[in-house]
Amino acid sequence: MTKSLSGSDSGSDWEPQRRVIEAAQTGDLEALATLYDTHINQVYRYALARLGNVQDAEDVAEEIFLKMLHGLPNYEWRKVPFAAWLMRIARNEVISFARRNGKRNHHGELPEDLLDRGNNDPVENAERQLALEDLRKAVELLPEAQREVIILRFAAGLSVADTAKALAKRENNVKVLQHKGMQRLQVLMAPKYPELAQRQA
């Protein structure tokens, strides 16, 4: 996974990240490209996890970055990590898109890179895709707060700290929601995947 310019890192790691963000705020095209390349994957994965349709996720991801460009001059890097700030935009844009189009998650297509590219066994890849689809459906059954945390943590790949900032919650609350969400997913998935029930025992 590409390293996020989130501000979660400490020490000397943060200074070059801050310089990229500040350069992007002045309209530097190379810095803007760096921000895009660094974060497009997590934004796309978040949108896909929420919308369940590849085309919708691609369209919304582009809209999210347009909103990011519009708001970037007002971003203050000391107040909130960049990744968390961007995911707030992503969350709002996904909600707006779903409302405009009367959509919830479709349990639709999955990105090809979720499959094991090194595995040429079509049966195993098909089984993996079915398992991922079952997981998506189970995530949709979670309470909203748990679902948001699970998607931000594992689809978008945010840290606990950045997830807390994105959702305006305490880190301990995020950890509790993640724990409860994972427990609930095990319960939901166990009838079809009994090995998960064995882990709970």
Can you put this structure into words, describing what you see?
It is a single chain. The protein has a single domain (11-109, 119-200), classed as RNA polymerase sigma factor, region 2, helix turn helix motif (Rna Polymerase Sigma Factor, Chain: A, Orthogonal Bundle). Helix content is 69%, strand content 0%. The protein is mostly helical. The longest helix is centred in the first third of the chain and has 23 residues, at 29-51. Helix 1 crosses helix 2, helix 2 (29-51) packs across helix 4 (82-101) and helix 6 (144-155) crosses helix 8 (171-189). The chain has nine helices and no strands.
Write the layout of secondary structure elements.
Elements: H1 14-25, H2 29-51, H3 54-71, H4 82-101, H5 122-140, H6 144-155, H7 160-167, H8 171-189, H9 194-200
Helix pairs in contact: 1-2, 2-3, 2-4, 3-4, 4-7, 5-8, 6-8, 7-8, 8-9
